[in-house]
Design a protein that fits this description.
Helix content is about 25%, strand content about 25%. The chain has about 260 residues and is α+β, with helices and mostly antiparallel strands. The two termini are about 35 Å apart.
Length: about 260
C-alpha cells in the first residue's frame, strides 16, 4: 500500500500536512494556541476545535460525528495543560476519495462503539464513515508534528475489513469494503496503547481479537500479544513497512531538510 506524506504544504498555518493512502487524500492545518472566546474558555487547559470539510458540499451529521472522534483523540495526544485559556484549531479538508466511496448495503447493522457489536437485523445498511477516519487521524497527527505544540505521544491508525469468508483485509479497497461483513478502525499510540476503536457491522469477540492483532501489526510492526519487549523508541526495528516507521521517517526527513542550512 502506497502512503504519501507532505509536511508543511501551507505557509500561513502554524502547522500543516497532507496525507494520502488507499485513494483517500486529506489536507490538515493547525493554528494555535490562539485567543479563545470566553464562552469556550477552559481555565486549566486549551480548547480544541476540529472542523472537517467534505470534498464536495457542506458538512453534515457524518462530519460532526468524525469531528467528535478526532477531538476526543487529540485531547489525549496534545499536552493541553501547557496552554490554558487558549484555542487550538484543526481544519481538515478532504481532497479526494476513491471512486465508489459512499453508502454500502452489504454490511450488517451499524454501530460506532468501543466494544464488540452483533447485528440484530442483517438487512440494515451503514454509512461509510470508517474508511475515511484513518486518513483523518493520520493527517491530524502529522500536522501537529509540524508545529511547536507539545505532545504526549503520536499515534498511527489503520482500517481492517472482515470478508464474508472470515478473511481479514488490512487497508481494504472500495470493493472489499462493500463486500465486508464488518469494518474496524484501530489507532495505537507510540507507547503501544490502544487509543481509538470504532467498528461497524456484525462480529464476535474472537474476530475482534484477530482484528486487533492485524491492526497492531500494521501500525506498530508486531503484536504486543506475541511480545512484551517492543521498545517504543527503537529506530532499528526489523519491520520497515509499518505506519509507525513511516511516521518516523517523514519526521526525520523534515528535520534533515530544515537543518541543511547548517551544512553550508
Amino acid at each position: 500500500m502506497t502512503h504519501t506524506i507532505t509536511l508543511g504544504p501551507l505557509n500561513r498555518a502554524d502547522g500543516s500536512a497532507s496525507y494520502s493512502s488507499n485513494g483517500y487524500s486529506v489536507l490538515a492545518a493547525v493554528n494555535g494556541p490562539v485567543e479563545v472566546q470566553r464562552r469556550d474558555e477552559i481555565p486549566e487547559e486549551a480548547a480544541i476545535d476540529v472542523v472537517l470539510r467534505p470534498a464536495v458540499g457542506v458538512g453534515a451529521v457524518r462530519e460532526r460525528h468524525l469531528e467528535s472522534i478526532i477531538e476526543k483523540t487529540l485531547r489525549q495526544v496534545i499536552i493541553v495543560s501547557a496552554h490554558p485559556r487558549t484555542l487550538i484549531q484543526l481544519t481538515l479538508q478532504i481532497v479526494a476519495t476513491p471512486v465508489g466511496h459512499g453508502p454500502c448495503t452489504d454490511l450488517h447493522q451499524s454501530a460506532s462503539v468501543s466494544s464488540v457489536v452483533q447485528s440484530s437485523d442483517p438487512a440494515d445498511s451503514v454509512p461509510q464513515n470508517l474508511p475515511l477516519l484513518p486518513a483523518l487521524l493520520q493527517s491530524s497527527i502529522l500536522a501537529l508534528l509540524s508545529t511547536s505544540l507539545p505532545l504526549h505521544m503520536t499515534l498511527t491508525s489503520t482500517l481492517v475489513a472482515v470478508s464474508r469468508n472470515g478473511e481479514l483485509v488490512g487497508e481494504p479497497s472500495v470493493e472489499e469494503i462493500q463486500e465486508a461483513t464488518s469494518l474496524h478502525v484501530l489507532s495505537f499510540s507510540s507507547h503501544g496503547e490502544l487509543m481509538v476503536t470504532e467498528s461497524e457491522g456484525a462480529f464476535d469477540i474472537e474476530t475482534w481479537e484477530q482484528v486487533y492483532d492485524k491492526a497492531e501489526h500494521g501500525c506498530r510492526g508486531s503484536s504486543m500479544r506475541d511480545s512484551n519487549q517492543m521498545d517504543d523508541v527503537d529506530m532499528e526495528t526489523s519491520e520497515a513497512d509499518n505506519l509507525q516507521n513511516l511516521l518516523r521517517g517523514a519526521i526525520k526527513e523534515k528535520s534533515a531538510r530544515e537543518q541543511r542550512w547548517r551544512e553550508g
